[in-house]
Amino acid sequence: MRKTLHTLPLGLAAAAHAATLHYRERDARRQIFNAGLSVRLIERTTTAIRALLTDQDHLPHRSIEERLASGSTTVAAIRLALKLAWEQGLLTYRNRSPGWNRERRTFALTATTHPHLDMNLDRTVATDRLVAAYFDRYGPASLRDVTWWSGLSRAGILAALDRIGQPLVAVHTPWSPAPLYMFHRRLMEFDQASVAHRPAAEPVLLAHEDVALKAYAETRTRYLGNLDQRLAFNQIGEALPTIVLAGRVAGTWGWDTRTRAVTYTLFRGHVAAADRPGVRRAAQRVTAALRQRYDDGTRTTHHPPAHQQPARLVASPTP
How do beta strands 91-95 and 105-109 pair? Predict the structure, then answer.
């Protein structure tokens, strides 16, 4: 969605696909038009790609190009046909690398990898599911938050909330001058939660582009406080790997390829001395976990069954 990668459960991914297909497909077709390629050529190329992936799936894009490029079927045409077919949900991208630190981009037919996944949901139904899921998971949030996250229009989101019919409440917080919204039942659950029984705050290391950080745009001060956004987001708006303590970003972390260990930086004034040992233990746990799936070039490729692999629906299929 919004031309950026979202990691979602399959059912919700299908809803996100159908709800946002109209603008993603529009942009893919505009690229084809701007490249001066005919609709007939792209349709013919797409048919050839589908036939190739029917015989042999999970092919890297360069393998597809090498097998199909000839005459008027240029590499540019193949790449744009791949892009359009992916945005349409005909193809699934999958990283077939045996380790988290490498990427081996491959394509397969969605009907092959996820035969029971409905990629043709009605747009209105899909929009309602997506908007309901957002406020259920991320409320309270502003309308600008959800429009930024989904790429849907404000009018479309308001119409979806009206159709959903779940009672909403407006919440005023220090995070934004605009009112934030959440489902009434979620507010009741929050009010009924006993503070005395909540677990002690433990440092959490969030991954690059973590879904919680990506959920908000207007109200990021909920977890940034007075921190400059540039400390938690890079120049193109991607969420950096961060350390969160008691719901607030308190530092950043990274992977040292030389020592194969997590390194981290804590922001001055945002971590008490008593919390530093917890951060150190959290970094050690993440180090141990990442070392288990670190690919040093000697691993044997192992591919789990298709139903165990996450679908990635929106990202650039070309290098």
Answer: antiparallel
Q: How far apart are the first and last CA of the chain?
A: 19
| Whole-number Å distance between alpha carbons of 214 and 233 | 10
User: Containing domain of residue 284, as a range?
Assistant: 199-293
| Pair 16, 102 in one domain | yes
| Total domains, the chain | 3
Q: In this structure, what CATH number is given to the domain that contains residue 109?
A: 1.10.10.10
Residue 212 in any domain: the answer is yes
Selection from 143, 136, 122, 216 nearest residue 224 by Cα: 216
Q: How confident is the model at residue 299 (pLDDT cuts 50, 70, 90)?
A: low
Tell me whether residue 215 is in a domain.
Answer: yes
Cα 138 to the chain's mean position, in Å? 15
Residue 147 CB contacts under 8 Å (≥ 6 apart), including other chains: 153, 154, 157
Q: Please give the model's pTM, rounded to 2 decimal places.
A: 0.86
**Measured between alpha carbons, how far is 123 from 24 in angstroms, rounded to an integer?**
13
pLDDT digits (tens, 9 = 90+) for 150-163: 999 999 999 999 99
**Contacts with 234 (C-beta within 8 Å, 6 or more apart), sequence order:** 240
Give the dihedral sign, CA 134/137/138/142. positive
